[in-house]
Design brief:
Elements: E1 3-7, E2 10-13, E3 18-25, E4 33-39, E5 46-52, E6 58-60, E7 68-73, E8 78-83, E9 92-99, H1 102-107, E10 112-113, E11 117-122
Parallel strand pairs: 2-11
Antiparallel strand pairs: 1-3, 3-8, 4-5, 4-9, 5-6, 7-8, 9-10, 9-11
C-alpha cells in the first residue's frame, strides 16, 4: 500500500516561507505522479503543484506559479513544496497525493492521499 505523510506546516507571516515535505512509502513503478492540493475552510479543494518521479516534470496552479516550487528526492522517497512570498490566501490544509501519472494526479482524482498539514499565513 502507498502511504503519504506530510510535515512542515506551521504559522508564518505574510511574505515569509515554508517548506512542506511528503514522505512516501509503498511506492511502486506504477505510481509516478505526485501532487500537492490544499483546502481552506469553506472552500473547495484545489490543485497546487505536481511532479513526476522519473522525469521530474512539473505543473503548477496559476495562483502559486513563481512563488512555489515542487521538487522530489528519489533516493529518500520524499516530495517537497517550497513556498515563498506567502499570502494570507495561501492559508489552508495542504495534502500530498499520488497516482499513476502526472495527468492522473492533477485532474484524474488521485488514488492516494496524505493526512494533511496546516499552513497558516498571518497578515
Amino acid at each position: 500500500q502507498v502511504q503519504l505523510v506530510e510535515s512542515g506546516g506551521g504559522l508564518v507571516q505574510a511574505g515569509g516561507s515554508l517548506r512542506l515535505s511528503c514522505a512516501v512509502s509503498g511506492r511502486t513503478f506504477s505510481t509516478n505522479g505526485m501532487a500537492w492540493f490544499r483546502q481552506a475552510p469553506g472552500k473547495e479543494r484545489e490543485f497546487v503543484a505536481a511532479i513526476t518521479w522519473r522525469a521530474g516534470r512539473t505543473d503548477y496552479a496559476d495562483s502559486v506559479k513563481g512563488r512555489f516550487t515542487i521538487s522530489r528526492n528519489n533516493a529518500e522517497n520524499t516530495v517537497y513544496l517550497q513556498m515563498n512570498s506567502l499570502k494570507p490566501d495561501d492559508t489552508a490544509i495542504y495534502y500530498c497525493a499520488a497516482d499513476t501519472t502526472l495527468g492522473a494526479v492533477v485532474s484524474g482524482g488521485p488514488n492516494y492521499w496524505g493526512q494533511g498539514t496546516q499552513v497558516t499565513v498571518s497578515s
